[in-house]
Amino acid sequence: MSNTLVINASARQHGSTSRQLTAQLADALGGEVVERDLSQAIPQVDEAWIGANFTPAGDRSLDQDAQLSLSEALIAEIEAADTLVIGLPIYNFGMPAALKAWVDMVARARRTFRYTEYGPEGLLTGKRAFIVVTSGGTEAFSEIDFATPHLKHVLGFIGIKDVTVIRADQQMVKGEAAIQAAVDEINLVGAAKQAA
Question: How far, in Å, are 62, 103, 166, 176, 191 from residue 144 at the CA level?
Fold first, then answer.
């Protein structure tokens, strides 16, 4: 059975387009679903966290292990998943602060990526991801979208290179047509899953 990790970053619990669409996509994919709601607060990386992260695993104190416990839990969720479904509402041309905090917790040298003589190598391979982008006025992948390319790059950097972007962008310009375009794409994903 497939395992899908759904990551919701919208600050809105009700009336959130990204939450609505990630739920529809997870349902279309089927299998077991685990949800991580980032609106419940992910702490910012601080000096103690950085010190723990740069201490070799065998040399860490109990306090340092505790500093990294949430990061380890978040990484374990990715490791257990076959597919990631990430809701990406664009806030002021970038990703929500909670999603950036998640990125900082899971993009860890020697844990989810490493540097080699040939350049960086992602360690979370063999997975795929869907990014569900929602926005009021920002066009996905336009010159003022600093969220979608950033998140897609981070996923590739940690080894997840099979990334599909589903767009419900410019809702204040396109209206319901923006959401319907995303629903149509999700329906295609579901049809492909059933046919496989």
Answer: 44, 20, 18, 22, 33
Quickly list H helices, 54-175. 62-67, 69-80, 97-106, 148-157, 171-174
Locate 158 and state its tokens.
């940690």
155's CB contacts (< 8 A; 6+ apart) are: 84, 129, 131, 161, 163
Q: What is the DSSP letter of 59?
A: G
Could you report the per-residue pLDDT of 91-115, keeping only the tens digit for each?
999 999 999 999 999 999 999 999 9
pTM metric for this prediction: 0.95
Spatial contact of 68 and 52, defined as CB atoms under 8 Å apart: yes
Report the distance separating Cα 107 and Cα 103, nearest Å: 6
8 CB contacts (<8 Å, ≥6 apart)?
16, 18, 19, 22, 35, 36, 37, 38, 39, 87
Tokens of 94: 């970038």
